[in-house]
Each structure stands twice: as C-alpha cells, then as structure tokens.
Amino acid sequence: MCPAFGAVRNLLRMEDAMPIVISSGDGCLYGHTFVAHFYVANRPIFSPGVSSEIWARGSVFDELKLMVHEMAEKHRPSIIPICSLCVSDTVGLPFDLLPKQIGNTEVIYVPLPAYSVHTHARAKDIVVDSLVWRLPPQRKTRAGVNLIGEFFPSDPIKIDEVLRRIGTHVNTTVPGPRWSDYVAMVDGALNAPLHPFYSESVKRMKMKQGLPFVDGAPVGIDGTYAWIKRVGEALKLNAATVEAVAGEERDKVVAAMADFPLHGLKFMVAGYEGHEFLLVRLLIEAGAEVPYLSTAVSANPLAREEEAWLREHGCTVLYGANFDDEIGALEDHPYDCVIGTTPLCAHAKELGIPSIYYTNAMATRSLTFAQGASEILSLMLSTYRSKARYAKIASFFSETGVPKRTHTGWAPKIDLTEHLLANQAFAPAQGVKP
C-alpha cells in the first residue's frame, strides 16, 4: 500500500477537514479512495478534474486554485490540506502561491512524495509537522501536556487522570479529529511525543514553540515510573506528590503483570509505526524473551532511549526491516509466538507458530498503565495457549502436500476441496452442504 495513505487516513479522520489529493486520477487517486473507504469512513477524497487534457495543457495548478476557493467559500471547513503525491507532473507546481487562508479556512500544503516517504509512520509525521507549522504564536499563559501520538481512545483519558493527581493535565492530543486539537497546542506547557516516529514534527515544534519535551511513554513498569517523574520535573511540580503517584502507578503495573506471566516464552515482534518498542518493553518486563524487534521506522533521537533499554534486555532492534530480514530472523530462534506484519504472520502460521497481525491486535487495545498491561498480556497469553490449533493446521497442510508460501510468491495452485472434506478438522457440520 502507498505509504502516503498513513497521512491521508489521519486527515480523513478530521471532522472539519476537506483533504485534496493531487495525483494520477486513474491510479493513485483511485487507490487512495478505495482504501480510505475501507479503513476510515464514508468520506470523500477531493481532487481537481485531472485528465490527460489538463496535464497536457499544464493547467493543473489553475484547476487546483479554483477548487480550493470554491470549497472554502461554499463549505467553509476549518482546514483544506492539499496532499501532492509522487506523480511526476506535480513536481515543480507552485504550491507556495496558494492562499494560506480563505475566510476562516486554513489552506495547508502537505508534501507526500512516496518515493522518498517509505512508511506510513513517516507520512503521519509529515502531516503533524505541516499542520503544527501553521499554528499561531504561543500564548504567554500556558499549562498542561500536549500528547503526540496515536493511542487507544481511552489512553489519553487515563493519562489525564494520573496527571491531575500530580498537579497538571492533558492539554490536547494530536493527531486529533479536529483542527482545534492542533490549535490547542499553543496553550500547552510541555510536549510529550509518546511514539518515537514523530521525529521531524518534534524537531520543528522545538524550533517554533520552544517548549520542553519529555521522552518515553507511561507503558510498563520502568516506563510508567520514569515518564511520570519526567513530567513532574519538567513542569516543576511538587516532588513528593510526583514520587508518590509514580510509585503507586508502577506498583499497579507490577501487580497487573503478575496475573499474566510470560516466563520461558520467546516472542518475535515486527511492526512499522514505532508502537512496537513499547509492546516489547511490556513483554520483557512480564518475563518473556524477545531476541528480535523489527521495525519499518528509521533510527532517530526519539527512539534512542527505548532502543537502549531493549538492547540491555537482550533484544536486537532492526530499523527499516524488510520481509526477507524478518523471515531470516524467524528462522534463527524457536519462537513461541509472533506479533507482526501480515506476510510474516502468514509464514509463521505455516510453521505452526501462534501469530497475530500487529495493527489489528494492538490498535484495538489500551497500552498505558496497569490496564494496558493487563489487556496486552492477556492477549499474548491466550494467543500462545492456542498453539495446538496452529500446530494442527500446519500438520494438515504438511500432510496434504500443499505448497508453502516462499519469498518469491506461491507455488502453483491446487484444489484443496477434496483434502478439506476428508479431514475431520475442516469437515462441515452435519447437515450443512460444503
């Protein structure tokens, strides 16, 4: 899937935005529209009437400018983000000549050349960077913590409850569903990037806002304690109160982990948004061994501390990993469970290893504090305990001679109907026609 979709998806989730995509109408635009409806909601992606005639006469920018004015004056959205993809015809278009504002509508250019943006995470970083750069100046009276990162909806609420106990609060969370969530950042006193892939936007925030930053996230035993302490120190809150709350939340995580021990189990984790660093921390603290973490994100300053912690606990971190790297790592150890990308999980299941798709499993659960630890570790334990089912499937395919998936694709197709009906595990229920 085009990496730029990470950005388009976040923009489509903004209720008061009307995103425009400049791309190939019969390729990029169709693909992004299809996936947007599949993953987001029944919301349109707008685009000027791009045709071969328009490309030929070089009037793309004129069509775009007319469209922006019409949308702003007729629909009056809060923002119109304009995303240019990697179509050669868009290179050199004078996007800086577009109006910055029409009435109360902000017009914001978001460059997304997929040939240089290799991950969804990087595309999301570009969106946050582009939107934050348009913010008004910081206000003199500021308070609260700006959370930067995508978490389960209940996580910011839980974080706010804990922060209020030490004398502060969550000011806003981005990416958010409204432009006002971004504008509210000017009222915050501290920025907290919870995911280590928002590196470029964080760098620009430092240039524009000048606010202090805290690394890490309230995940796991060490992470929860350290994050609360850092927030307290950065905002100069009452040290005794901060220490008490940090210790209490740490002890809750310890108690939660005791209910889902993973001692003696070996996990492999492969993800592509930076979220996976925090998951591996949880697994290791619960007693699991994680020899290998694969991530699509690039090495950056925000990930240094998490990476150092993981390496100290025996985990090798591979940045910018590809499928071949992951398959090779999978064969290096006898894993009990795999949490990873779709192709990696498919390969692991063929080997009889319990496996779950990273995004679908993690994005639907809390991750922070004791509740997050309970939800994630409960899932890990139940997945491992289903090992017999995976072994049965692997045995079935091995016995029937079904060709296994390889790096280069699938072997010739065969008809499985006869094998499925002959095998009791896959036979239809009595009275049900196959």
What are the main properties of this structure?
single chain; 434 residues; alpha/beta; Rossmann fold; 5-stranded parallel sheet; 4-stranded mixed sheet; 18 helices; 13% strand
Describe this protein's structure.
- With 434 residues, this protein is of the alpha/beta class.
- It has three domains: 5-117, Nitrogenase molybdenum iron protein domain (Rossmann fold, 3-Layer(aba) Sandwich), CATH 3.40.50.1980; 145-254, Rossmann fold, CATH 3.40.50.1980; 257-390, Rossmann fold.
- 45% of the residues lie in helices and 13% in strands.
- It is built from 18 helices and twelve strands.
- It has helices at 5-12, 28-39, 52-57, 60-75, 120-132, 154-166, 179-183, 199-208, 221-234, 239-258, 275-285, 304-312, 323-330, 342-350, 358-362, 369-384, 387-399, 417-422, and strands spanning 20-22, 79-84, 101-102, 105-111, 145-148, 170-174, 190-193, 266-271, 289-295, 316-319, 337-340, 355-357.
- Strands 10-9-8-11-12 form a five-stranded parallel beta sheet, with helices on both faces. Strands 1-2-4-3 form a four-stranded mixed beta sheet.
- The protein is globular.
- It starts with a helix and ends in a 12-residue tail after the last helix.
- The model is unreliable at 406-414 (pLDDT under 50).
